[in-house]
Amino acid sequence: MSRRYDWSLRTLVSLLCGITKIGSTTIAETTEYQACLNSQCSSLDLGTRSLTGSIPNSMVNLTSLTQLDLQNNRLTGTMPTELGASTVLAYLYMHTNSLTGTVPTELGALTALTYLYMHTNSLTGTLPTELGALTALTYLHGGEASEEEAVSDTGDAAATAKAALAWLCSGGSP
Ligand SMILES: *[C@@H]1O[C@H](CO)[C@@H](O)[C@H](O)[C@H]1NC(C)=O
Prior knowledge:
The chain is an alpha/beta fold. The chain is built from 3 helices and 9 strands; from the N terminus they run αβαββββββββα.
């Protein structure tokens, strides 16, 4: 690799990393989340905000939350087991992110859950049988249906690209 090429590659990578840093906010850093922690809100709408990082464990303290919308962000990490502690959460939108790991069995304890959207992530494994206990559940969109495969594939490709970029931006360390 010539020096010149190496230099342009570095420039490109630092440019890309600069772009991904712009507006890089975590859930915990949003004013909406802070307000919810302080005053027990019933709805938290953080969809399509380019949020990064993982879903904070302090979510367990949002005990009045009936609707949680985290869709279409750049969230990573696993679905927190703490979410399962709520008896009032009815709408849970976590689709179109880069969440990994399996769907926690604890979600089977969300007795009020009606809508559960988690498609277009990088989740692995099968749906826990515990979800069968959710009698209120009306809409489950996990991306398993064959007609959703095209959408999931696009999501996976995007997630892979994002992961590769994150790896580059972190200096290439695992
Ligand atoms: C929940 O709130 C309590 C009281 O403010 C705090 O001590 C605790 O650390 C919080 N839990 C989490 C997981 O952040």
